[in-house]
Design a protein that fits this description.
The complex is a heterodimer. By secondary structure, chain A is α/β, with parallel strands linked by helices. Chain A has eleven helices and twelve strands. Chain A folds into two domains: 25-126 and 257-280, Response regulator (Rossmann fold, 3-Layer(aba) Sandwich), CATH 3.40.50.2300; 128-255 and 300-327, Response regulator (Rossmann fold). Chain A is globular, with a radius of gyration of 21 Å. Chain A starts with a helix and ends in a 5-residue tail after the last helix. The relative contact order of chain A is 0.14. Chain B is mostly helical. Classes of the chains: A alpha/beta, B mainly alpha.
Chain lengths: 332, 371
């Protein structure tokens, strides 16, 4: 009987696949230098695209760029091949997408973390500062030493925005708590240098930090491991990383790039795709904090209540979280 | 056959030394790469076909190949010049970065007052000056303080990237801009592409980033050749590289040579900035130098530190870069990391194992001579 069911499901899936062919789209993704499997930002996008493939049977093509010149090359190649829609992952692709989208006005682009002002480009930005504010509250309440840490990836304005939101969340909870920030590096290897990030985290632990938030792509994995080794707490980023080390992962600042990717492909398939700039914050469900079976033992009811309260207040506009990138400084 | 018979070897003719052995080494590397492609379940012949067609099959592919080769020529020459003076310049990466900074600052300052004809020499001079200055500090420390140039140039790569991040994130970033990039230069500060030059002659080619920097690269090759082998300064430089004590005996001051050689080397690496910043990106940004400095070491190694060899090795690495990107497009199972493995194999076989195939060829030539 179970076997028959499987055949039926398979048949239905094939039928659905066949039907989809009528309005078939040929989606593509150009990944950032961090690579498709960084367990964080890029992988979030890949997850959303994979979900689309599972549900519709429509496969997507992808390319991992290894230098900046390849961004334009990749987008142009995909556009020439008739791929549509195309997702560009990361702010570094903004210029390339802007140039190519001008030459291919009928092809649709979704640009994540960057802006290209063209009718055939959908620019998706996130209010990382709002999500970081919430995990800042979690860090402040979980800390027993009164010192919390931050490990960023490459020292660029986007990462300072994470840091700035986090600081505001910590200070909002308890102005006396000290924050020790570090950046992993100044080259793109900073996104993929877990060893160095782990050393930075250990240095922070030695200075009394007991909760550390990593916004460093694949480098963050080193921070989480260091937290396990030293029995401290760590906070994940971009994807929900709570499952990596249950027991020491306090929470994660989730940035729903997966939803952005999935929605773009789905909207294109259903004919509801629209260009323009979308800024996704807590209100729009673009960013959030992660609470699941892996960290429910670490989050006390008081913490949960306070975070949810702050979340509601930010959505209602009662708390404004300053955006570092608005003025290139973190004054609040 | 006695034991001595089997070990008979003949010295290789020059053509075999400069052409046959490098080609054999590359083929060995490709063979090893083919095995890896086979292991991951793809057809190696198909992979080679895609790579060659992607890099040389049409005018766009050729354009990209030559664009990459331009950068490799600059950094390859930079390593070669330093090497002839007995110095190992690992700092091409940082010198290219700072050279690009010089180009960017010059163009940001003057793009609305000067025409293109004046901006080109200005940008070239700025690239050379900034690149040379960045190499000069480690050179000085080597010459007068004995700090080893390999260590200092590596450290200067990191200092360069830290400096660039500081400048781009805090100082040069265009207002209301997401990513750390300067404003775009005005179009009169864009180095014309080869495509637009050819279009002026009535030849249309597909779009690619290839620009007039290629001409600068050609001039640099000729310049290095004349400098090293046809001027007294080049003679002094090579003498220091061959034997410092002999050079001193001949009245050459090795300290001066170290400073000059590294400055020339840094200037050559700095020209990467002309290609990337003025020719392709048209704005100052981060990481445009990625990997070119380090690949330049392999290029110089393969090219035996001679401009002709550097050009050939640059073309090979250009083909690998562009063909590799095409390979990643066409065969999803082949990831960018695989391309790096293939490049690594070529460097391994033609650098570290360069003499592995030599005894084999020496025996062949010995047999041929007896027959």
């Amino acid at each position: 009987m179970k076997f028959l069911w499987q055949i039926a499901v398979l048949g239905a899936a094939m039928l659905a696949g066949g039907m989809a062919r009528a309005d078939e789209i040929k989606p593509a993704v150009v990944f950032d230098l961090g690579g498709k499997f960084d367990k964080s930002f890029n992988q979030g996008v890949a997850g959303g695209a994979d979900k689309f493939t599972q549900e519709t049977g429509i496969k997507y093509t992808d390319f991992v760029a290894t230098n900046d010149t390849q961004f334009e090359q990749a987008h142009r190649r995909f556009a020439e091949r008739g791929q549509d829609p195309i997702i560009g992952v990361g702010f570094a692709q903004a210029d390339a997408v802007g140039k190519v989208a001008k030459d291919f006005p009928k092809t649709r682009w979704t640009l994540i973390d960057g802006i290209a002002n063209l009718p055939n480009v959908q620019s998706v930005l996130f209010k990382e500062q709002e999500g970081s504010f919430l995990v800042g509250i979690a860090a402040a309440m979980a800390s027993k030493t009164g010192k919390v840490g931050f490990v960023g990836g490459m020292d660029i304005p986007l990462i300072r925005r994470f840091q700035c939101g986090y600081e505001q969340g910590v200070k909002w909870t308890d102005p006396k708590i000290e924050i020790i920030p570090n950046m992993t590096g100044t080259t793109p290897t900073a996104w993929n240098d877990p060893a160095r990030a782990a050393e930075l985290a250990k240095g922070q632990f030695e200075r009394g930090v007991d909760v550390v938030y990593a916004a460093a792509g694949a480098s963050g994995l080193g921070v989480y491991q260091a937290a396990v080794d030293n029995k401290k707490l760590a906070i994940g980023v971009d994807s929900d990383q709570n499952y990596l080390h249950p027991g020491t992962m306090l929470t994660s600042m989730v940035k729903h790039v997966d939803v952005a990717a999935y929605n773009s492909f789905m909207a294109a398939k259903n004919g509801t795709w629209k260009g323009g700039i979308a800024v996704l914050g807590l209100k729009e469900g673009g960013v959030d904090w992660a609470f699941d079976q892996y960290n429910e033992k670490l989050i006390t009811p008081a913490m949960k209540a306070k975070i949810e309260q702050a979340k509601a207040d930010i959505i209602a506009g009662k708390i404004t979280v300053v955006d570092y990138m608005a003025n290139n400084n973190c004054k609040y | 056959m006695s034991r001595t018979d089997r070990n008979v070897r003949a010295p290789l003719p020059r053509w075999a030394d400069v052409a046959l052995i490098p080609v054999a080494n590359v083929l060995l590397a490709l063979l090893a790469a083919a095995l890896i492609v086979l292991v991951i379940g793809e057809n190696p012949l198909k992979a080679v076909r895609i790579m060659v067609a992607g890099a040389l099959g049409d005018s766009q592919g050729i354009g990209y190949t030559l664009y990459y080769a331009t950068n490799y020529i600059f950094t390859g020459l930079a390593v070669a010049v330093a090497f002839h003076a007995g110095l190992f310049n690992i700092g091409g990466e940082g010198q290219a970065y700072i050279g690009g900074l010089g180009v960017g600052l010059a163009l940001l300052a003057f793009d609305h007052v000067l025409p293109l004809a004046a901006l080109i020499p200005l940008a070239v001079a700025a690239a050379a000056l900034f690149g040379a200055a960045w190499a000069f500090v480690p050179a000085y420390l080597q010459a007068y303080r004995g700090s080893h140039i390999v260590i200092t140039t590596i450290m200067f790569n990191f200092i360069a990237s830290a400096l660039m991040v500081y400048l781009m994130v805090n100082v040069l970033i265009a207002p209301h801009q997401m990513s750390p990039e300067s404003r775009e230069f005005l179009p009169n500060a864009w180095l014309p592409t080869i495509g637009s030059v050819l279009a002026g002659l009535g030849i249309t080619v597909e779009r690619s980033p290839l620009n007039l920097s290629l001409v600068l690269a050609a001039l640099a090759c000729v310049g290095v050749w004349i400098y090293l082998w046809h001027t007294p300064w080049g003679y002094e430089l090579r003498t220091v590289g061959q034997s410092e004590r002999a050079a001193v005996y001949a009245g050459v001051k090795p300290r001066h040579i170290i400073l000059v050689a590294m400055a020339v080397s840094g200037a050559l690496a700095g020209f990467v900035g002309v290609n990337e910043i003025m020719g392709v990106q048209h704005r100052l940004l981060l990481n445009f130098n990625l990997g070119y400095g380090f690949t330049g070491i392999a290029v110089a190694l393969m090219g035996r530190n001679h401009p002709v060899g550097v050009v050939l090795a640059s073309l090979l690495f250009g083909i690998l870069s562009q063909g590799g990107a095409e390979l990643a497009f066409e065969i999803p199972a082949i990831t960018p990391e695989m391309i790096i493995v293939i490049q690594g194999l070529i460097i391994l076989f033609s650098g570290a194992l360069a003499n592995m195939s030599r005894p084999f060829f020496e025996r062949i030539f010995a047999l041929a001579a007896r027959a």
